[in-house]
Write a structure and sequence with these properties.
Elements: H1 14-31, H2 55-63, E1 67-71, E2 74-76, E3 83-85, E4 88-94, E5 99-103, E6 113-117, E7 120-125, H3 128-149
Antiparallel strand pairs: 1-2, 2-4, 3-4, 4-5, 5-6, 6-7
Length: about 150
């Protein structure tokens, strides 16, 4: 499980974190258009967010109510698109690759994000913030590789 350690930040810094990832998406589009195929800006903040969600995920929805093309064809769902899943709450998915992002809503790992691909567990993050920061780190690595090819 990927640890949150440094990714646990104040709830109010989501707009800045989202802005940085949006800038990375733009940079990747500039370097190679296919890398960030359908990334679009995140949706406007949610007006009503479920009270039973972990604080970091509630804060994210309060800053961005979903994000089409968040990462490599995976969309993050808005508050009105969230669906129950056998492992928790389905918070995102890809249309073609079969990826599913599930927020654990009960038990010892409540608040963790599990990433399933083709029905198999691909990765697990101890919190939504850790998941988001992991995607930022992977996107930066892609940017670095594209820069090296230039």
């Amino acid at each position: 499980m990927t640890r949150a350690s440094d990714s646990v930040r104040a709830v109010s810094d989501w707009p800045e974190r989202i802005r940085r990832l949006t800038q990375l998406h733009q940079r990747l589009r500039d370097l190679e258009d296919e890398v960030v195929q359908s990334a679009s800006p995140p949706a406007p903040p949610a007006q009503h967010v479920r009270a039973d969600l972990p604080d970091d995920y509630r804060a994210f929805l309060g800053a961005a109510n979903g994000w089409v093309g968040f990462y490599k064809g995976i969309d993050l769902f808005g508050s009105d698109q969230l669906r129950e899943h056998e492992s928790g709450l389905l918070i995102g998915a890809s249309k073609e690759a079969g990826d599913q992002l599930v927020l654990v809503t009960s038990g010892e790992t409540r608040g963790a994000v599990k990433w399933f691909g083709g029905g198999e567990l691909v990765d697990e993050f101890e919190a939504f913030g850790a998941f988001f920061d992991g995607i930022v780190a992977q996107t930066r690595e892609e940017e670095r590789k594209l820069e090296a090819r230039r």
